[in-house]
Amino acid sequence: MAEQLELRAYIYIDRMQPQYAAFVGSITQGDLPVEGMASLYVEMAPGNHVFRIVDVAVKATDSRPGAQIVERQFGMFELHSPQQAEVLQAGEVILRELGLSERDRLRPSIASLQVITNVSPYQSQLLNRFTRGMMLVAGQTMLVVECTPAAYINYAANEAEKAADVNLMHVTSVGVFGRLWMAGTEANINTARDAVVAALEGIDGRS
Protein backbone atom coordinates (compact mmCIF):
# COMPACT_ATOMS: atom_id res chain seq x y z
CA MET A 1 0.00 0.00 0.00
CA ALA A 2 1.39 3.42 -0.94
CA GLU A 3 2.41 5.67 1.94
CA GLN A 4 0.70 9.03 2.33
CA LEU A 5 3.34 11.77 2.21
CA GLU A 6 2.87 14.83 4.40
CA LEU A 7 4.75 18.06 3.76
CA ARG A 8 5.04 19.47 7.27
CA ALA A 9 7.39 22.37 6.61
CA TYR A 10 8.84 24.01 3.53
CA ILE A 11 10.67 27.29 3.99
CA TYR A 12 13.20 29.25 1.94
CA ILE A 13 15.80 31.51 3.58
CA ASP A 14 17.09 34.07 1.11
CA ARG A 15 20.27 35.08 2.95
CA MET A 16 21.69 33.43 6.05
CA GLN A 17 22.63 36.00 8.66
CA PRO A 18 26.10 35.96 10.30
CA GLN A 19 25.20 34.52 13.71
CA TYR A 20 22.61 32.14 12.33
CA ALA A 21 25.01 30.76 9.72
CA ALA A 22 27.75 30.40 12.33
CA PHE A 23 25.41 28.54 14.68
CA VAL A 24 24.23 26.16 11.95
CA GLY A 25 27.84 25.51 11.03
CA SER A 26 28.56 24.49 14.63
CA ILE A 27 25.91 21.76 14.68
CA THR A 28 25.60 20.50 11.11
CA GLN A 29 27.04 17.14 10.14
CA GLY A 30 26.92 17.80 6.41
CA ASP A 31 28.24 20.53 4.12
CA LEU A 32 29.04 23.67 6.12
CA PRO A 33 27.08 26.82 5.22
CA VAL A 34 28.47 30.34 5.50
CA GLU A 35 26.96 33.78 5.87
CA GLY A 36 25.06 35.02 2.83
CA MET A 37 24.08 31.62 1.46
CA ALA A 38 20.48 30.80 0.58
CA SER A 39 18.91 27.82 2.33
CA LEU A 40 15.87 25.56 2.16
CA TYR A 41 14.39 23.56 5.03
CA VAL A 42 11.93 20.73 4.44
CA GLU A 43 10.22 18.61 7.08
CA MET A 44 8.10 15.64 6.07
CA ALA A 45 6.50 12.39 7.12
CA PRO A 46 7.18 9.49 6.84
CA GLY A 47 10.71 10.54 7.72
CA ASN A 48 12.56 7.92 5.67
CA HIS A 49 11.56 9.67 2.44
CA VAL A 50 14.16 12.38 3.10
CA PHE A 51 16.92 10.12 1.78
CA ARG A 52 15.30 9.80 -1.64
CA ILE A 53 14.27 13.46 -1.84
CA VAL A 54 17.70 14.80 -0.89
CA ASP A 55 19.30 12.53 -3.47
CA VAL A 56 17.01 13.83 -6.21
CA ALA A 57 17.61 17.48 -5.27
CA VAL A 58 21.42 17.38 -5.11
CA LYS A 59 21.66 15.44 -8.39
CA ALA A 60 19.51 18.02 -10.16
CA THR A 61 21.15 21.19 -8.76
CA ASP A 62 24.36 22.54 -7.27
CA SER A 63 22.77 22.87 -3.83
CA ARG A 64 24.50 21.06 -0.96
CA PRO A 65 22.97 19.13 1.95
CA GLY A 66 23.80 20.44 5.41
CA ALA A 67 21.39 18.33 7.43
CA GLN A 68 19.53 15.09 6.81
CA ILE A 69 17.79 13.87 9.95
CA VAL A 70 15.22 11.16 10.57
CA GLU A 71 13.83 10.92 14.08
CA ARG A 72 10.88 9.16 15.68
CA GLN A 73 8.05 10.97 13.91
CA PHE A 74 9.43 13.15 11.11
CA GLY A 75 12.30 13.66 8.72
CA MET A 76 13.98 16.99 8.09
CA PHE A 77 16.68 18.18 5.72
CA GLU A 78 18.43 21.38 4.75
CA LEU A 79 20.03 22.40 1.44
CA HIS A 80 22.09 25.52 0.76
CA SER A 81 24.05 27.27 -1.94
CA PRO A 82 25.78 30.61 -2.58
CA GLN A 83 23.34 31.00 -5.48
CA GLN A 84 19.71 31.65 -4.58
CA ALA A 85 18.62 30.31 -7.96
CA GLU A 86 20.10 26.88 -7.16
CA VAL A 87 18.17 26.62 -3.90
CA LEU A 88 14.94 27.79 -5.51
CA GLN A 89 15.41 25.24 -8.28
CA ALA A 90 16.08 22.52 -5.70
CA GLY A 91 12.78 23.43 -4.07
CA GLU A 92 10.96 23.08 -7.37
CA VAL A 93 12.55 19.68 -7.96
CA ILE A 94 11.56 18.53 -4.48
CA LEU A 95 7.93 19.61 -4.82
CA ARG A 96 7.68 18.03 -8.26
CA GLU A 97 9.11 14.74 -6.94
CA LEU A 98 6.63 14.78 -4.06
CA GLY A 99 3.72 15.70 -6.31
CA LEU A 100 2.91 18.59 -3.99
CA SER A 101 2.96 22.39 -4.02
CA GLU A 102 4.18 24.93 -1.49
CA ARG A 103 0.57 25.44 -0.43
CA ASP A 104 0.48 21.84 0.82
CA ARG A 105 2.85 22.61 3.70
CA LEU A 106 1.56 23.03 7.23
CA ARG A 107 1.19 26.59 8.45
CA PRO A 108 3.39 27.19 11.52
CA SER A 109 1.92 27.97 14.90
CA ILE A 110 3.61 29.56 17.89
CA ALA A 111 3.35 27.24 20.88
CA SER A 112 5.10 29.54 23.35
CA LEU A 113 6.65 33.00 23.28
CA GLN A 114 8.26 34.58 26.35
CA VAL A 115 10.34 37.68 27.02
CA ILE A 116 12.30 37.41 30.28
CA THR A 117 13.83 40.67 31.50
CA ASN A 118 16.85 41.17 33.77
CA VAL A 119 17.91 37.53 33.74
CA SER A 120 19.53 36.45 37.01
CA PRO A 121 23.20 35.38 37.02
CA TYR A 122 22.23 31.90 38.22
CA GLN A 123 19.79 31.43 35.34
CA SER A 124 22.33 32.71 32.82
CA GLN A 125 25.05 30.37 34.06
CA LEU A 126 22.71 27.39 33.88
CA LEU A 127 21.49 28.19 30.36
CA ASN A 128 25.00 28.82 29.08
CA ARG A 129 25.81 25.17 29.73
CA PHE A 130 23.32 24.17 27.03
CA THR A 131 23.93 26.73 24.30
CA ARG A 132 26.15 26.41 21.22
CA GLY A 133 25.81 30.08 20.34
CA MET A 134 26.38 33.36 22.18
CA MET A 135 26.53 33.49 25.97
CA LEU A 136 23.67 34.88 28.05
CA VAL A 137 24.95 37.64 30.35
CA ALA A 138 23.23 38.38 33.64
CA GLY A 139 20.90 41.37 33.37
CA GLN A 140 20.14 40.87 29.69
CA THR A 141 16.65 40.25 28.34
CA MET A 142 15.98 36.82 26.86
CA LEU A 143 13.56 35.73 24.13
CA VAL A 144 12.28 32.13 24.22
CA VAL A 145 10.14 30.85 21.33
CA GLU A 146 8.62 27.46 20.54
CA CYS A 147 6.85 26.70 17.28
CA THR A 148 5.53 23.75 15.34
CA PRO A 149 6.44 22.30 12.87
CA ALA A 150 9.96 22.54 14.24
CA ALA A 151 11.81 23.40 11.01
CA TYR A 152 10.17 26.83 10.79
CA ILE A 153 12.16 28.05 13.80
CA ASN A 154 15.18 28.41 11.49
CA TYR A 155 13.37 31.02 9.42
CA ALA A 156 12.20 32.80 12.56
CA ALA A 157 15.75 32.96 13.95
CA ASN A 158 17.19 34.33 10.71
CA GLU A 159 14.47 36.97 10.34
CA ALA A 160 14.90 38.07 13.97
CA GLU A 161 18.63 38.54 13.42
CA LYS A 162 17.88 40.64 10.34
CA ALA A 163 15.57 42.88 12.36
CA ALA A 164 17.46 43.48 15.60
CA ASP A 165 20.89 43.64 17.22
CA VAL A 166 20.53 40.49 19.31
CA ASN A 167 22.69 37.58 20.38
CA LEU A 168 21.64 34.20 19.00
CA MET A 169 22.06 31.66 21.79
CA HIS A 170 20.44 28.48 20.57
CA VAL A 171 18.20 26.98 17.88
CA THR A 172 16.67 23.51 17.95
CA SER A 173 14.75 22.53 14.81
CA VAL A 174 14.24 18.77 15.13
CA GLY A 175 11.32 17.07 16.85
CA VAL A 176 7.77 18.16 17.57
CA PHE A 177 8.71 21.73 18.56
CA GLY A 178 11.34 24.11 17.27
CA ARG A 179 12.99 26.24 19.95
CA LEU A 180 14.84 29.56 19.78
CA TRP A 181 16.77 31.48 22.47
CA MET A 182 18.02 35.02 21.91
CA ALA A 183 19.41 37.66 24.26
CA GLY A 184 20.02 41.39 24.21
CA THR A 185 18.61 44.67 25.47
CA GLU A 186 14.90 44.75 26.21
CA ALA A 187 14.23 47.06 23.26
CA ASN A 188 16.12 44.87 20.80
CA ILE A 189 14.53 41.68 22.10
CA ASN A 190 11.08 43.21 21.71
CA THR A 191 11.96 44.05 18.09
CA ALA A 192 13.19 40.49 17.55
CA ARG A 193 10.01 39.11 19.09
CA ASP A 194 7.87 41.15 16.71
CA ALA A 195 9.99 39.95 13.77
CA VAL A 196 9.55 36.31 14.84
CA VAL A 197 5.78 36.69 15.07
CA ALA A 198 5.58 38.48 11.71
CA ALA A 199 7.78 35.86 10.04
CA LEU A 200 5.82 32.86 11.29
CA GLU A 201 2.40 34.42 10.79
CA GLY A 202 3.39 35.37 7.24
CA ILE A 203 3.80 31.73 6.14
CA ASP A 204 0.69 30.31 4.53
CA GLY A 205 -0.32 26.69 4.27
CA ARG A 206 -2.67 24.08 5.66
CA SER A 207 -4.12 24.41 9.15
Structure write-up:
With 207 residues, the protein is α+β, with helices and mostly antiparallel strands. It has two domains: 6-104, Alpha-Beta Plaits (2-Layer Sandwich), CATH 3.30.70; 109-201, BMC (bacterial microcompartment) domain (Alpha-Beta Plaits), CATH 3.30.70. Helices cover 35% and strands 29% of the residues. The protein is built from six helices and eight strands. The chain has helices at 18-27, 49-60, 84-98, 121-128, 152-163, 186-201, and strands at residues 6-13, 38-45, 64-70, 75-81, 109-116, 141-148, 167-172, 178-184. The strands form two sheets. The protein has a four-stranded antiparallel sheet with strand order 1-2-4-3, sandwiched between helices. Strands 5-6-8-7 form a four-stranded antiparallel sheet. Helix 2 crosses helix 3. The chain is globular and about 50 Å long. The model has no long low-confidence stretch (mean pLDDT 95).
Number of strands: 8
Low-confidence spans: none
Rg is 17 Å
Fourth-level CATH superfamily of the largest domain: BMC (bacterial microcompartment) domain
Strand order of the largest sheet: 1-2-4-3
Report mean pLDDT, rounded to a whole number: 95
- Give the number of domains: 2
Assign the structural class, choosing from mainly alpha, mainly beta, alpha/beta, alpha+beta, or little secondary structure: alpha+beta
Q: How many angstroms separate the termini?
A: 26 Å
Largest sheet: 4 strands, antiparallel
Topology-level CATH name of the largest domain: Alpha-Beta Plaits
Question: Tally the helices: what do you get?
Answer: 6
